[in-house]
Amino acid sequence: MTDHLPPAPPVVRLTEYTKTEQIEIIGDSDDPFGVADAGLTWLPKEDHFGIRQKGRLVAHAGLLRLPISIGEADTQVVGVGGVAVAPDLRGRGLARLVVSAAVDHARTMGPQHGLLFCRPPLVPLYQRLGWRMLEQDVHVEQPGGSVIMPLRTMWTPLRDGAKWPAGEVRLRSLPM
Ligand SMILES: CC(C)(COP(=O)(O)OP(=O)(O)OC[C@H]1O[C@@H](n2cnc3c(N)ncnc32)[C@H](O)[C@@H]1OP(=O)(O)O)[C@@H](O)C(=O)NCCC(=O)NCCS
Hints:
By secondary structure, the protein is α+β, with helices and mostly antiparallel strands. It is 15% helix and 37% strand. The protein has 3 helices and 10 strands, in the order βαβββαβαβββββ. Coenzyme A binds at residues 32-34, 83-85, 90-96, 118, 122, 124-125, 128-129. Keywords: Transferase.
């Protein structure tokens, strides 16, 4: 007998993602991503992917192309951020769906690597989605100058066989 699973909800490109849309997903908490302790200034994302259920936005992942230097090379990465799923719908694969759709799009943007920052407890989740830990310090810009990113840094190849190059890593912008 075949199992009839409900069809996966479609991921759509969002034309707008503001505080209003974020509140629609995760509510109006002071620190929905649990990163306020880090005291960082973040960049908004440019491309937005979402899942709607019965008209309500329930999941989001955002993308932004950013300049980075790795060793002597100045290059770009696609930053992934603002990953959020409605609290009542977690654990059902919605983050997998929306992050996968965002990464599929990131593959068309040019850079060889996707990059994200997350709290340590989320490392296993992103590893499950194919991301790898970057086991070195990553410098990022902040309004007061360059700092070492206190969160975990993870990357994913956007081209077949792309490896992370050796060398000091400096994101040449605020983090995403
Ligand atoms: C983090 C968050 C987006 C996860 O959303 P979610 O819809 O519950 O995640 P999914 O159900 O898609 O899980 C993704 C995968 O990780 C796996 N996973 C979840 N928790 C895990 C854990 N602790 N260890 C290992 N794998 C885990 C799931 O099994 C799933 O893998 P599978 O598809 O192979 O079964 C959600 O909890 C959230 O919105 N949190 C608040 C905002 C936040 O912290 N965002 C992250 C910013 S970096």
